[in-house]
Amino acid sequence: MPGTDAISVVDTPVVDVMGRPLRDLRISVTDRCNLRCTYCMPRAVFNENHSFLPRAELLSFEEIERLARQFVRLGVRKIRLTGGEPLLRRGIEQLVERLARLQTTAGAPVEIALTTNGVLLARKARALKDAGLARITVSLDGLSEATFRRMSDTDTPVRTVLDGIAEAQRVGLAPVKVNMVVRRGVNDHEIVAMAGHFRNSGMVLRFIEYMDVGCSNGWRMDEVVPAREMLDRIADRYPLRPVDPNYAGEVAVRWHYADGSGEIGVIASVTQAFCHECTRGRLSTDGRLYTCLFATEGLDLRAPLRAGVAEDRLAALIAAGWQRRNDCYSQQRQAMAGAGAAAKKIEMSYIGG
Ligand code: SAM
Ligand code: SF4
Ligand code: SF4
User: How many domains does the chain have?
Assistant: First the structure.
């Protein structure tokens, strides 16, 4: 492993070439999913001819834990499990339990969160909570059956996801965050209805600009509804006032309903890129470190892990990967007036959304 020996890492926060620390880690625990959202895993690509990763290629829970521990030594404070659909990974609550035992170098617990499409959540919420999950985000792109089906390409009724959300709230995974990806002409007519539905619920609804992740969704800039437009449409019906971020570098910009009926957020990854404060690393299902959602290559951590290298050496390898990082894809896209790069980008289900 050339290039790792010179680096003294152990238990020190690392920063990349732009001075950004490594604070958050997203781990994709499976590249499979029980939905086929058109903007993420379109059925035309992710069908019976698609090669999902064979089981032996996936990191085991023990391997994930070993790697996560090294990330924590380097500054990670928050770990989010994602995919694909993380609740499809058998025994996921056992992984949560292992990770929830991790502590930062200052002795604080590492916060474990999970993003799910909610289909299996009603039956899993209790076990996840008991295992130590701190927070949950559920993706839901519409309330009417027609819109939900158009976005997620499924026969599963919306009710199933709403029941999952309710159960998560009930077991104390509150406040549940709900993510709505907005695509012009497909589900943007439900922005205000979604706001109305989740007001007064204690949940935080976040509206996400549709991004050009991967190469299979046929992304076009004219399908992006800018966050500013979403806010205007909501505020027309329910007046809003801005709120300070919870912490520096929070990606969602927060707003409160002026009448006190709750909070929403907007994530303007396309029109107001936040690369300059992006502190996220991503560990793919097969153990590669990607330092950007739009990266084309990842650093293989599984090979050294399976070759039995010492923990310090693993940490050094991760640190070196982060220290080389100069990604700022969304800011560059913005500078190119919305044109995405032509390079072969990695699919979100594999890298971890
Ligand atoms: N299956 C889980 C889910 O849907 O919540 C977790 C994985 S999914 C890839 C994570 C998040 O990425 C979801 O909220 C999804 O809506 C979002 N996402 C996927 N493709 C996207 C895209 N092209 N633009 C914006 N968000 C996207
Ligand atoms: Fe599956 Fe989530 Fe992608 Fe939808 S967004 S296809 S639920 S991984
Ligand atoms: Fe972070 Fe890459 Fe997204 Fe920029 S484009 S915010 S560097 S993941």
Answer: 1
Probe target for ligand 2 pocket from 27, 29, 35, 116, with the most ligand atoms within 8 Å of CB: 35
Distances, alpha carbon 22 to alpha carbons 74, 147, 173, 325, in Å: 7, 37, 26, 10
Q: Are 304 and 312 in contact (CB under 8 A)?
A: no
How far is CA 117 from its chain centroid?
Answer: 12
Q: How far is the CA of 35 from the centre of ligand 2 (A)?
A: 6
- Domain holding 327: CATH number? 3.20.20.70
Distance 44 CA to ligand 2 centre (A): 14
349 lines ligand 2 (CB under 6 A): yes
**Could you report the per-residue pLDDT of 259-310, keeping only the tens digit for each?**
999 999 999 999 998 999 999 999 999 999 999 999 989 999 999 999 999 9
Spans of the chain below 50 pLDDT? 1-8
Residue with CA nearest ligand 3 atom 4: 275
Q: Please tell me if the CB atom of residue 238 comes closer than 6 angstroms to any atom of ligand 1.
A: no
Of 184, 207, 187, whose CA–CA distance to 266 is shortest? Answer: 207
60 in any annotated domain = yes
Max intra-chain CA distance, the chain: 59
Domain membership flag for residue 275: yes
Report whether 117 contacts 34 (CB < 8 A).
Answer: yes
Query: What is the distance in A from the centroid of ligand 2 to the CA of 150?
Result: 13
Print the domain residue range for 82.
24-351
Asked, for residue 6, whether it belongs to a domain, the answer is no
240 within some domain: yes
